[in-house]
Amino acid sequence: MKIMSNEQLIVSYRDALKSGKEKEWIKILKDEIERRGLKPIVNR
């Protein structure tokens, strides 16, 4: 994975969730978010 800022990571995660296609990419992003201690807020 390329190096991303926290903001880029959250935006990529939200975009991946919206598309819902790449399950493995969603998991990788989610794991990285949790590792960094971030909390992505998704309003649904």
Automatic annotation (TrEMBL):
The keyword ATP-binding does not apply. Pfam families: Sda. One of its GO terms (molecular function) is protein kinase inhibitor activity. InterPro entries: Sda (IPR015064), Sda_sf (IPR036916). Keywords: Protein kinase inhibitor. Transmembrane segments: none annotated. This is Sporulation histidine kinase inhibitor Sda. It comes from Neobacillus paridis. The lineage of its organism: Bacteria, Bacillati, Bacillota, Bacilli, Bacillales. The gene is sda.
